Structures are given as structure tokens and as C-alpha cells.
Amino acid sequence: MPYSYAISAMSKPQIAIRLSPSLLQELNNYVELTGTSKTDVVVSAIAQYLGCVDNVPLNQRVGELEKRLRELETKLNII
After folding, report:
1. Integer angstrom CA distances of residue 33 from 15, 36, 48, 54
2. Angle CA(75)–CA(43)–CA(70) in degrees, nearest 5?
3. Among 29, 30, 40, 74, which is most buried by a count of CB atoms within 10 Å?
4. What global pTM score does this model have?
5. Buried b (16+ CB within 10 A) or exposed e, 53-71
6. Local confidence pLDDT in tens for the 79 residues of the chain
């Protein structure tokens, strides 16, 4: 008997990845520093890598810009 899957319009497919312990630690440090989720970081990184950043939600893109601005401000205060 064939299986049928009901997928709502709001559901998103999931994937699983394997990371080295050091890369996982970098990811954990990043999400703690920025207050974003691991999912948002991975989705953004994949979108940037594939050249389809327009598929990243606006609030996530704004959050990344805010993070970059904070980094620049920190660097300018050091100089």
C-alpha cells in the first residue's frame, strides 16, 4: 500500500548534517553571540553559498547586517 504524506503549506523539509566538533563549537559561539538560531545561520550560509540570498527572510538579513555593523563599530573603537 503506498504511503501518503500530508504536508501543510507552513511546514519546511528538514535535513541532517554532520559537523566536526570544532565547527559545531564555532556555530554555538556564533548563535550565542548574535542571539540567532542555528537554523537561521545554516539557512543564511547555504543561501549565500548558492547565490540565492533573496530566499532568506528579511528579518534574518537585517539581523546579519546589524551583526556586521556591531563588528565594524567594535573595530573602529579599537583603532
Report:
1. 24, 8, 20, 24
2. 15
3. 40
4. 0.60
5. eeebeeebeebbeeeeeee
6. 455 445 455 688 999 999 999 999 999 998 888 778 899 889 888 988 998 878 777 877 788 788 888 888 888 886 5
